[in-house]
Amino acid sequence: MLKDHTKQTFCDHSTSGFGSPYPPQTPPPTELPSPIQVLEQEKVRESEDARRRAENIKEQGNIAFKAAKYTEAIDFYSKAIGS
Fold first, then answer.
1. pLDDT tens, residue by residue, 16-59
2. How far is CA 37 from the centre of its chain?
3. How far apart are CA 21 and CA 23, in angstroms?
4. How far is CA 58 from CA 18, 39, 52, 68, 81, in A?
5. Is pTM, for the whole model, over 0.85?
6. CA distances from 59 to 50, 73, 76, 79 (A)
7. In angstroms, how far is CA 65 from the centroid of its own chain?
8. Which of 21, 46, 59, 71 has the smallest C-beta neighbourhood within 10 Å, fewest atoms?
9. Residue-range domain boundaries for the chain
10. Which residues of 49-80 are buried (b: 16+ CB within 10 A; e: fewer)?
11. 71-75 long-range Cβ contacts below 8 angstroms, 24+ apart
């Protein structure tokens, strides 16, 4: 008896260890930030860095103030405000 090779058969790979019978889905491409977004992020980082530096200088002023070195404390506070 001859087989009819004209019929198309569906091969279920899910039972043969190959996973889904459908092609794998690729995740959508990640969107790169625009140049403006990059600049804004850079400004935020610089602002945070400046704030940390000012806080450190202010803390030095607090230490000088507690040690009754008032002129030195004022210099630190002034420097913190200006940074």
1. 555 667 777 777 778 888 889 999 999 999 999 999 999 999 99
2. 13
3. 7
4. 64, 28, 10, 15, 8
5. no
6. 14, 9, 8, 11
7. 39
8. 71
9. 55-83
10. eeeeeeeebbebbeebeeeeeeeebeebbeeb
11. none
What single letter denotes the amino acid at residue 11?
Answer: C
Query: Token pair 């058969």 is at which residue?
Result: 9
In Å, how far are 71, 75, 79 from 65, measured between CA atoms? 8, 11, 14
CA 22 to chain centre: 34
Run of H or E including 70 = helix 70-82
Per-residue tokens: 43: 């400004």
Rounded distance, CA 82 to CA 49, Å? 14
Shortest CA distance to 83 belongs to which of 48, 56, 59, 53? 53
